[in-house]
Design goal:
Length: 312
């Protein structure tokens, strides 16, 4: 197997040769992560599809349960009643959180299809998998921890008293809290890094240069989180800090694995806090709310109500 860490990927790409396992490594050309075989159109398709899945999958999970509870288009004030039900019923909230898992899986499948051209290319080589000089495991763990500390300070200094949509969902039930913690560690870092620093960044860098790609990815990653964390400007700023650091590391190193590890550590610390916070609450009366929530997308229930009404 080619050593992705020691052997720099060439700038050109050729189709895999069936005799590859029996050839010398310098005879086999791998895709270059900074000059990928997919274009900006495919990258934007993945990005847009990931958002659509996050929005529509909760509807798919919510509608059968709402129908069983007596919600139908002919009832008075259907839209507002359904919106309130989706936000206040614990089972309804949990179903929407659970729906993020299949949406993440479908996004990963779409990422694989675009990156490999349906299995024709090496996924790990094209996406930039592997460690980079100066960004190995322990340094990434330390950097992820430092980013969490900085993000927490920023969120505390510039945060708002009013709880965010995500905090309300986290506090709706212990099952929702645990499920969000699971997603924050097991799927969100991979999905978000594959989409933003993996699929999106490379063709943007090719078209707009390094600085342009960093700015665009920062903007897309941060803006998409604004409705989720509004009105807490501190948490939004913390997400922006995380995004720019991860994107700069991807630009500097040419590798995606350090970004995933840093993101995983960042989310992992928050997930641990979410899990243990209910058990610490009786001991610490001032602990009224959890720390900033994991940085991944959740459905905006209020904005979905007209869509649900049309679907029904």
């Amino acid at each position: 197997m080619p050593n992705l860490e020691e052997t720099p990927a060439p700038s050109n790409l050729q189709e895999p040769d069936p005799s590859y396992p029996f050839r010398q490594k310098d005879q086999y050309q791998l895709p270059d992560p900074d000059n990928p075989p997919w274009g900006l159109g495919g990258a934007l398709l993945v990005w847009f599809a990931s958002i659509v899945l996050i929005i529509l999958m909760p509807v798919v999970f919510l509608l059968p349960y709402a129908w069983a509870k007596g919600f139908h288009p002919g009832m008075p004030d259907f839209g507002p009643a359904l919106a309130e039900f989706a936000l206040t019923d614990r089972v309804a909230v949990l179903l929407q959180v659970v729906s993020l898992f299949p949406s993440h899986l479908l996004t990963l499948i779409l990422v694989w299809a675009v990156v490999t051209r349906f299995g024709k290319n090496s996924f790990w080589a094209a996406i930039g998998w592997g460690w980079a000089r100066g960004f190995r495991l322990w340094r990434c763990v330390v950097l992820g921890t430092l980013l969490f500390v900085v993000g927490s300070v920023v969120a505390k200094l510039f945060g708002a008293e009013k709880p965010t949509q995500l905090e309300l969902i986290i506090n709706s039930s212990i099952a929702a809290r645990y499920m969000i913690s699971f997603l924050a560690v097991c799927t969100a870092p991979f999905v978000e890094e594959f989409v933003y620093r993996g699929v999106l960044y490379a063709p943007l860098q090719r078209l707009a240069g390094v600085k342009g790609a960093v700015i665009i990815v920062l903007a897309l990653f941060t803006i998409i989180h604004v409705p989720q964390y509004w009105p807490n400007a501190g948490v939004i700023a913390a997400v922006g800090i995380l995004s720019i650091v991860l994107t700069v590391i991807r630009a500097y190193s040419g590798r995606l694995l350090p970004c995933i590890v840093i993101h995983l550590v960042f989310n992992g610390i928050q997930a641990v806090i979410l899990v243990v916070e209910p058990h610490l609450r009786p001991l610490i009366p001032s602990a009224e709310r959890a720390t900033p929530a994991p940085s991944f997308l959740l459905p905006l229930i209020d904005s979905l109500t007209p869509w649900i009404a049309k679907l029904l």
